[in-house]
Amino acid sequence: xxxxxxxxxxxxxxxxxxxxxxxxxxxxxxxxxxxxxxxxxxxxxxxxxxxxxxxxxxxxxxxxxxxxxxxxxxxxxxxxxxxxxxxxxxxxxxxxxxxxxxxxxxxxxxxxxxxxxxxxxxxxxxxxxxxxxxxxxxxxxxxxxxxxxxxxxxxxxxxxxxxxxxxxxxxxxxxxxxxxxxxxxxxxxxxxxxxxxxxxxxxxxxxxxxxxxxxxxxxxxxxxxxxxxxxxxxxxxxxxxxxxxxxxxxxxxxxxxxxxxxxxxxxxxxxxxxxxxxxxxxxxxxxxxxxxxxxxxxxxxxxxxxxxxxxxxxxxxxxxxxxxxxxxxxxxxxxxxxxxxxxxxxxxxxxxxxxxxxxxxxxxxxxxxx
Length: 370
Fold this sequence. Notes:
Elements: E1 2-6, H1 21-34, E2 38-44, E3 52-57, H2 71-84, E4 91-94, E5 111-115, H3 124-130, E6 135-138, E7 152-155, E8 174-180, H4 187-197, E9 201-206, H5 212-223, E10 229-231, H6 237-245, E11 247-252, H7 262-269, E12 274-277, H8 282-285, E13 292-295, H9 298-307, H10 313-323, H11 326-343
Parallel strand pairs: 1-2, 1-4, 2-3, 4-5, 5-6, 6-7, 8-9, 8-11, 9-10, 11-12, 12-13
């Protein structure tokens, strides 16, 4: 198939540091190429990809040092480039939320849109009612709850290339928090868990401008002068294997409807169990008692983190390989692409081996700030 992947422009593909959506697009794109498909990636010029790259901006927006930037203008320019080439593709796969809807109505039947953010915000529902012709993919079943009647075609969980993450059979005895310092990610809970267990906690996280007050007033006072807590800051992919592989457990103490949570499967790839609050997608990702523990209270989280070292790290990595590899994700998307093509008027011939249908057992199932 000839497939276009259209990514947001906020981060490089893959991101240099923190970033979820663009990282998923990078791994999906490369996996589709490896499976023999003709893939074109629309992204900023600093993308690293095995696909054909159409650069639409000189660099990703967030790390661009220019003091004044228009993310809307950048994305409109990209959409114009995609529209100009729309007839070249069998499938155009958007990861830009709903911003492309007004421009691509004439070819909506060849598009697929994966929604990567939360959907419980005012105004969002009206957009998906207004443009029902655009088929949607959720990244977890839980993500759909605010919009159950939207044009959902499938749920496809994220995947990552296993070779990016080095498995570690033994931990170094510390707990880990990886992600973003924000109220909904609840790093304060992670600190409380570590203190209750008297275990070291390493925090690798970025602090967005929007969360500076939370960092200064809530988290920084909990970190400073606390010998158990080490704040590392943002880290890139090349640092994650050592950070996560050395952890006795990853703490994922969220307090919001997380649509997926990439860090959970990154930890699993390194063999680290995950202690996650039962919220959003976590019950779909974590197999309680196998790849980690699902908890509802701080007391349960403390108890779970205290026994996380008893879980089989090799079995955790094996579950990652089975459920959350980049190839597994790409094959699931190929199944969806095949269904999309089969519904189009010109799809009169069988698709043959282009799509590998999922076995029944495998069917387990532009909002920034995620």
